[in-house]
Amino acid sequence: MLPKPYRLHEEKDFARVFKYGKSLSQGVLTWKLAPNNLTRTRVGIVIANSVIKKAHDRNRTKRLIRAVLLKHYKDFRPGADIALVGRKGIEQETFATLSVMIPQALTRMRVL
Q1: Vertex 104: Cα angle to 18 and 77 (nearest 5)
Q2: 82 φ, ψ to 5°?
Q3: Spacing of C-alpha 112 from chain mean position
Q4: What pTM was computed for the model?
Q5: What is the DSSP string of 1-54?
């Protein structure tokens, strides 16, 4: 689990990232990246009810994504807010595929 200071959880932070952030689309994941004035990078994960109906499946998917992010978090460049949006089909992704997809996207966004 990512420690609280490294998570986006306030609505105003998500709204700022969605409004001013740059997008990157990668299969079943969409990334939004916006700079912040902090000495750390914060990450938030959004998966809509319309994408995965059951709460336990949504939460499981978020836990898998967080586990991959935590594995690479020590290598993040500071000063960014990242919102990760899951799209249709994300529930079929395994830990192995997410472990490949997420670092590729972070490298493309120059966060790693």
Answers
A1: 65
A2: -125, 130
A3: 13
A4: 0.90
A5: ---GGGB--SHHHHHHHHHHPEEEEETTEEEEEEE-SSSS-EEEEEE-TTT--S
Give the Cα separation of 103 and 28 in Å (integer): 14
**pLDDT tens digits along 78-112:** 999 999 999 999 999 999 999 999 999 999 999 88
User: What is the distance, to the nearest Å, from the Cα of residue 105 to the centroid of all Cα atoms in its chain?
Assistant: 10
Question: Residue 9 has what pLDDT?
Answer: 87
The CA distance from 112 to 110, in Å, is 6
Q: Which helix (H) or strand (E) holds 108?
A: helix 95-108
CA dist., res. 55 & res. 58, Å (int): 5
Query: H-helix or E-strand containing 85?
Result: strand 80-86
